[in-house]
Design brief:
With 300 residues, this protein is of the alpha+beta class. It has twelve helices and nine strands. It has helices at 23-37, 51-55, 76-80, 89-95, 141-147, 159-164, 191-204, 209-220, 224-234, 243-253, 260-269, 276-298; strands at residues 44-47, 69-74, 98-100, 106-109, 116-122, 132-133, 153-156, 166-175, 180-189.
């Protein structure tokens, strides 16, 4: 059987770096990795660019462009040492064919697609956003056991929402290495957590795909921005103290065509032959989508 070529991580700068046709293959690889993690997978939430295709099964427009890596958020219980799992994450990763890179939160397959998996976690008193979390044996032996000696996770501002605003999504996948077809249940961050993480990323890094992800999922949600607003307010974490600030940050980022959200969206989707007017139309589309989401949320 022919093997799929390696998937090179994209830099998030332009849509040309992504191939939607690889989505099903990467989904199967993700299921295989989570199965390899065993019981630890119950404390692991799938976040990042894989989420839109899992939360929106049948989009009304173009399919989401997908992702080139796997992003996982570890639960608060796992990193705080409130639960002890039999197998260390690090051991499971190595058994599944992943090896650490120079960045200890990022591991890569040593063969096959050579997919990259990155680990994240909620912020703690000892680990603010943006820092690498690595528990110390003397301070937290259970958490140290859970993660292993080398694995770290990047602390995210939205990490608490990502690991608590979750849904279970069942998808049929084809496992790699002739593993067969099966129905797998993914624990995925919900729409509120996804928007929180992407909004924070939009402000803190120059990766235009963050804006694309925000607009795509808002427009493609069943019943569009109205349905997205209903899903957000239905989240059990909608009353979280950080949500008003998160939403204000989202609204501000898309409040005008020259703000970072619409400008990034246009940069990501525009082609070299596009005119300035084409880019403005893209920016207006982004602004319109989030403004409509805002109207429905504020009217709820």
């Amino acid at each position: 059987m022919a093997t799929d070529p390696p998937v090179e991580p994209a830099d998030g700068a332009h849509h040309s770096g992504y191939d939607p046709s690889t989505t099903e293959v990467i989904l199967g690889e993700t299921a295989a990795l989570l199965r390899a993690l065993g019981l630890t997978s119950h404390h692991t939430v799938l976040i990042g660019g894989m989420v839109p295709n899992l939360l929106v099964l049948d989009p009304p427009g173009p399919a989401h462009l997908g992702t080139t890596d796997i992003d996982l958020c570890l639960s608060i219980a796992l990193i705080d040492g409130d639960t002890a799992e039999y197998d260390r994450i690090e051991t499971c990763l190595r058994s599944a064919g992943f090896q650490p890179t120079k960045k200890s939160f990022r591991w890569r397959q040593s063969s096959g697609l050579r997919l990259v998996v990155e680990f994240f976690c909620p912020t703690t008193d000892q680990c603010p956003a943006g820092r690498l979390y690595r528990p110390r044996q003397v301070e937290n032996p259970t958490a140290k056991h859970n993660m292993g000696g080398n694995l770290t996770a990047v602390a995210l501002d939205a990490g608490e929402l990502l690991s608590t605003d979750t849904v279970t999504v069942s998808r049929e996948v084809i496992l790699p290495n002739d593993g067969g077809r099966m129905s797998y249940e993914f624990t995925v961050c919900g729409l509120l957590g996804f928007l929180a993480a992407k909004t924070a990323a939009l402000h803190k890094r120059d990766k235009p795909k963050d804006a694309y992800d925000i607009v795509w999922i808002t427009e493609s949600w069943p019943d569009g921005p109205r349905g997205a607003a209903a899903a957000i307010t239905a989240s059990p974490q909608y009353g979280h103290q950080d949500v008003p600030q998160i939403l204000d940050s989202l609204y501000d980022a898309f409040s005008a065509v020259d703000k970072v959200g619409p400008a990034s969206y246009a940069r990501f989707l525009a082609d070299p032959q596009d005119t300035p007017a084409d880019r403005i139309r893209l920016a207006r589309r982004a602004t319109g989508a989030i403004n409509e989401l805002r109207r429905h949320l504020q009217g709820s």
